[in-house]
Specification:
The protein contains 13 helices and 13 strands. The longest helix has 18 residues, at 131-148. By secondary structure, the chain is of the alpha/beta class. Helix 1 (16-25) packs across helix 7 and helix 4 packs parallel to helix 5 (131-148). It is 40% helix and 17% strand. Strand 1, helix 1 (16-25) and strand 2 (29-34) form a beta-alpha-beta unit.
């Protein structure tokens, strides 16, 4: 049997570093497309079996060539991890229509905007806000319309807050400042915005990779659909801090302040990232992915963060 040929656009990034070795292990002929040759986030001997193509997406899209360059690689399946505008999605889709068996796009749970009924399901009305969520929601609608019309078999997977080897996870204050982890581990006071009851929904990048792998494995269930790729349950800011402190073997000393008071003394960037997470307060269901794709995440939100922090200690 001829092996399935899969092109992964952005294959050395956060998700691709886990996904590409999984595809190789399945016996797929795997080709990684990236804008420059770079090492994945962690070593894996299976990378020796991967083909590489250096294509600068931004440059080639400006000249209108990117989609055709991907199609020329003769893939059965294309996994797109780096598409952020509907124009980019349109160029790729036009080139792939009638030439591939499946396009799988990486979306985001930010397409939902603020939560209403939780956990949020994939069929919840879209109410995105902010540039990123709005752009991704437009792409999702475009690709699912392409699939429903029969023009292009497409699937959209929506990851939560990515956690993995080699980068800092979102902390219990809702931003990326690693000092929060250090303060918790040393029993120093940690200030949280509001009452710490808003939520974060992490997911280990290997679990997201599993979701993509399952979409490849179950195209009949996946095509024309969107799926959440998150951990089994979200964490409140407060619960996250308390459980992480317990993992460190200490007690959490938390202080709660209204956001406008909390942000005093915090960098503008950290304050903005935290506010974005407070306003979204995501809490998403994986029931659809479980039942249709056999998605079975290995990591809880907390376990994903613990794995990332343990690996950062080793660096």
């Amino acid at each position: 049997m001829v092996p399935m040929r899969i092109v992964v656009i952005g294959g050395t990034g956060h998700i691709g570093s886990y996904l590409v070795p999984r595809l190789v292990a399945r016996g797929c002929e795997t080709l990684c497309v990236s804008r420059r040759l770079r090492q994945p986030y962690f070593a894996d001997e299976r990378w020796a079996m991967v083909e590489h193509a250096v294509i600068d997406r931004a440059v080639e899209e400006q000249s209108g060539r990117f989609g055709e360059q991907i199609a020329a690689l003769r893939p059965n399946v294309v996994i797109d991890l780096t598409c952020y505008t509907v124009e980019s999605a349109t160029q790729l889709s036009n080139a792939l229509a009638g030439r591939v068996d499946h396009l799988i796009h990486c979306g985001t749970i930010w397409v939902h905007g603020p939560s209403v009924e939780v956990p949020t399901t994939e069929d919840a009305p879209r109410r995105p806000f902010g540039d990123y969520g709005c752009r991704k929601a437009i792409i999702e609608r475009y690709l699912l319309d392409q699939a429903s019309s029969g023009r292009l078999p497409a699937t959209v997977l929506h990851p939560g807050h990515l956690v993995g080897s080699g980068w800092w996870p979102i902390n219990p204050a809702g931003n990326f400042n690693p000092c929060v982890f250090d303060d918790l581990s040393h029993e120093r006071p940690v200030r949280l915005p509001n009452f710490g009851l808003e939520t974060l929904h992490h997911v280990h990048a290997d679990d997201v990779a599993q979701a993509f792998e399952q979409a490849v494995e179950h195209p009949d269930a996946a095509i024309g659909e969107s799926f959440h790729a998150v951990s089994p349950a979200a964490l409140t800011f407060r619960g996250y801090a308390e459980r992480l402190a317990a993992w460190y073997g200490v007690e959490a000393h938390l202080e709660f302040l209204p956001y406008d008071e909390w942000r005093v003394g915090v960098s503008d960037r950290d304050a903005a990232v935290t506010l974005d997470h407070l306003r979204h307060s995501p809490n998403c269901s994986i029931a659809k992915a479980r039942s249709r794709l056999n998605y079975a995440p290995r990591y809880s939100s907390l376990a994903a963060v613990q794995d990332a922090l343990a690996r950062l200690r080793q660096l």
